[in-house]
Design a protein that fits this description.
Elements lengths: L1 E6 L6 H8 L4 E7 L2 H8 L5 E5 L5 H10 L2 E4 L6 H10 L3 E4 L5 H4 L2 H7 L2 E3 L8 H15 L3 E13 L16 H7 L4 E5 L2 E5 L8 E6 L3 E7 L5 H5 L7 E8 L3 H11 L7 E2 L6 H6 L10 H9 L6 H8 L14 E2 L1 H12 L8 E12 L6 E10 L7 H18 L7 E3 L4 H13 L5 E6 L2
Parallel strand pairs: 1-2, 1-4, 2-3, 4-5, 5-6, 6-17, 7-12
Antiparallel strand pairs: 7-15, 8-9, 10-11, 11-12, 13-14, 15-16, 16-18
Helix pairs in contact: 1-15, 7-16, 8-14, 15-16
Length: about 450
């Protein structure tokens, strides 16, 4: 029986654990800081066991990796290379849903030498987006065509009936990670020209996108799109854009949050009893008048009745409620993330939604250009797993089984952009009702 080590027991792990424990040829160990969470996931299953693992306990991590056949790392991203190095040392396979870092990329040669496969970016975004895109791109190439434009969008959002707060957003994964992503720089190509967006201006550059079955969303750039041109085999492409989707209003509000400095990570300590209004007032650069909302309006160049200020008020940033983190060193970003986590939760029975949309323009010799779309709209299960949990963890779970049963084995550091990986994973996801709907029509 092959032995799987799962590192981490966070919000998205339940579907993965259930899937792996349903495979008679696999045994699972969950190692995490809070073992009670792992115990709840295993729920006494005979093929599962749990153990406590602290981030600093590298000796125990090494021992665990040496005793298992494959490690799934759902730890914070900086720890993935530590896991990878140990997997190479003991010739164990590895799977993670996170982006490939430069350090991780450097393990490609050693992993090949050791016969170890380190599969990254096997979640939803990144993950299903790569796989569904590459299936179309490879098909265009097989038919003698060339992709001249590719725009890809993905967002984890409340389902329309659960979209009932002014931000149009609720958290199905780490609030801090969502906020931190709002500081990323952006880069893409539009009609042959490279567009660079500095982090502080990320939310100033957004555009509307009509999504079938949902309506209008807004899109902004997701990291460096250009890095995927070579990975996807799209040399010479005229337009290459990867974006994040939100309901309208998110970008204008987050832009002002960035301008105020609420995403800063400079350490600070707030005394016990500090209110959210006092916290917000520390970011004033204009002379206070005693009316915090009006002062912020002057600073941001907004009318006091602006929807942006209404959203800050709804979040409680002008209130006398206490700051959640006091008497110890923290950051403004952590205070904001804690408040968002308090106020922007899914209520019992509410559904989340994953919206993934690809738009291609393909050019063929002697034929009209084709407009190809691929759309995945997936909803969470009321009272069950969120869509975010399903779409992040099930691709990783499926890949784990395929690797351990020998159906996928490509040593080195990989993301799922080759047919040996994406075809069997996408095919099995379709049996779990996670499937992209494709449409092709002549370009008008």
């Amino acid at each position: 029986m092959a032995k799987v080590l799962l590192l981490g027991a966070g919000l998205v792990t339940r579907p993965l654990v259930r899937y792996l424990l349903g495979q008679p040829e696999l045994a699972l160990t969950i190692a995490t800081r809070t073992v009670s969470k792992a115990d709840a996931l295993v729920a006494g299953h005979p093929q599962g066991q749990t153990t406590t693992l602290l981030a600093k306990d590298t000796a125990k991590l090494e021992k665990l990796i040496s005793e298992h056949d494959l490690a799934i790392s759902l730890l914070p991203a900086p720890l993935h290379p530590v896991v990878a190095e140990l997997c190479i040392k003991y010739r164990k396979q590895m799977v993670t849903t996170s982006y490939v870092s430069p350090k991780m990329k450097s393990f490609d040669g050693p992993a090949k030498d050791a016969g170890v496969m380190i599969l990254n970016e096997i979640g939803v975004d990144p993950g299903i987006d790569h796989m569904s895109a590459m299936r179309i791109i490879d098909d265009v190439h097989k038919r003698g065509g060339k992709v001249v434009s590719f725009k890809s969008y993905c967002g984890g959002l409340p389902a329309p009936e659960a979209n009932d707060n002014p931000y149009g957003y609720k958290f199905s994964w780490s609030p801090r990670a969502v906020c931190t992503a709002g500081k990323n720089t952006g880069r893409y190509r539009a009609d042959g020209k490279i567009v660079d967006i500095p982090g502080p201006e990320l939310f100033a550059h957004h555009h509307p996108l009509q999504v079938e079955g949902i309506g209008e969303l807004e899109a902004y750039t997701n990291r460096d799109s250009l890095g995927y041109i070579d990975i996807y085999g799209l040399a010479g492409i005229e337009t290459m854009f990867r974006g994040t989707l939100r309901y309208p209003g998110w970008c204008e509000t987050l832009k002002r949050i960035v301008e105020l400095g609420l995403l800063e990570e400079t350490p600070v300590t707030y005394a016990s009893g500090t209110t959210l209004a006092q916290f917000t007032a520390t970011f004033l650069k204009v002379k206070p008048t005693g009316d915090l909302r009006c002062d912020l309006a002057r600073q941001l160049g907004l009318n006091a009745s602006s929807p942006v200020l209404g959203r800050l008020a709804w979040l409680g940033l002008f209130s006398d409620e206490p700051v959640a983190i006091t008497e110890k060193e923290t950051t403004p970003l952590d205070v904001l993330a804690a408040r968002m986590e308090q106020t922007m939760k899914y209520a019992p029975g509410e559904r989340d939604m994953i919206a993934l949309v690809h738009h291609f323009i393909a050019r063929f010799p002697g034929k009209p250009d084709e407009k190809i779309s691929s759309t995945l709209i997936d909803y969470g299960q009321p009272g069950g797993d969120s869509s975010m949990a399903r779409t992040v963890s099930l691709p990783a779970a499926i890949a784990t089984r395929l690797i351990l049963t020998g159906q996928i084995h490509v040593p080195g550091v990989h993301i799922p952009v080759i047919p040996e990986i994406y075809n069997p994973v996408l095919d099995e996801l379709a049996t779990l009702k996670i499937k992209c709907v494709e449409k092709t029509e002549p370009l008008a």
